[in-house]
Every structure is written in structure tokens, then in C-alpha cells.
């Protein structure tokens, strides 16, 4: 190797070593080239938004039930029972979830839709509770303001036969049964005014009065506006049958 070649190698090696030792100006500065001073009118960065709350399980189930919809129905009698049970289960699940989330469900919608659409007559005319009592039987009839009957029963309709129909106990049970039927039909929510009409002087007159004033009539008693007597009184008229005499 000649001296000129050796000298050239030494110079090249020294240049390479100086380049490897000298730090790079680009990576030597850790910060950006922009000015670090903020302007006075620049607003501070907004705080990070809180994470969105996860929807509840009830809301997820309610959404899934509404999105799925009822299952498709097929023609034929093979799977009619299966689809019917699926519909019933879906309705029950929807009603349970709606009650848990305090939302209106099918029951309340049906209750609200059953508004009286029939013409019951004049607004000022009350409902009537007729009690016809004689020594052989007791008849109770409840009518609307237009005189159409809601319920009409006698002691024989609840199981009393022959002479037992004219007793005080039969009349008491009959009146309690009629009031219970009215409450089951929701008439205590529809009646706004009630007039009690008494006829005859049999044991059922006092029995019906006791029922209306007792615990059985607590739902209808606030609506009673008047009590009237429609017992037939004869002025002259035809000859009455002779009194029955025993012995």
C-alpha cells in the first residue's frame, strides 16, 4: 500500500468518525419549531367530555322488542299454536318492561280506550237504583239515565227458592251481589249521580238500605243524590181482595 493511499484512508476514516459523533440538528431539539408563547385572547382547551353512560338493560330489552316486531305468520295450522304462544310471551314481556320503566303499557292503553261512546241520555239525569220489595220476593234493577237497564235481578237468581225468596237475608245478599257486579263492571267510575227508588214495604226495603249504608256500598254511596219512593197508592180504584184469614 502506498503512502498516498494510506493517507487517503486515514482522512476518510476521520471524516466518518466526526459525522457519527456530531449530533443531528433535526433530532437534537425535542420541541417543535412554532412559538411557545400563547396569545392573550386564545381560550384554554375545553375539558374532556365524560364517557357516555351505558343504556340500562330494561331500555335495551324494550328497544329490541320494538325493533324485532311480531314474528311472521305462516299459513296452515301446523305452527299456529307456536306463533300464538310467542305473541303472548312477547306481549307479557313488553308489559312487564313498560311497568318497570313507568311507561304506559297495553293494559292502560286498553283502559283509556274504553271510554263511554253510548248516548246515555241527558247530562242532568242521574242513574237509577230501583228496589222493589214485597212479601214474596225482592227485585233490584239498575238503569242508565236513558232508562236502559244495566242489571236486573231478583232473589231467585242467586239461588233462593220458594218461600226463602221473601226473607230479609235473601234481600240483603241480593243487594250486595248487585253492587259487587256493578263494581266489577267498573260502573262506580262511570256513575256521576245516583237516585235510589224504593217501592213496596217488604223486608227487602230495609235490607237494601242497610247494604247501601254499609261497607258493601262504600263505592256507590258518595254518588247518591236523592232517595225517592214510588210505592203505588190507590185512591178509590178497584176493590181490593179480601184479607186472608188463617184459622
TrEMBL record:
Residues 1-85 are annotated as: Disordered. Pfam families: Ribosomal_S11. Signal peptide: none annotated. One of its GO terms (cellular component) is ribonucleoprotein complex. Residues 1-20 have a biased composition (Low complexity). Keywords: Ribonucleoprotein, Ribosomal protein. GO terms for biological process: translation. It comes from the Eukaryota. GO terms for molecular function: structural constituent of ribosome. Belongs to the universal ribosomal protein uS11 family. This is Putative mitochondrial ribosomal protein subunit s18. It comes from Rosellinia necatrix. The lineage of its organism: Eukaryota, Fungi, Dikarya, Ascomycota, Pezizomycotina.
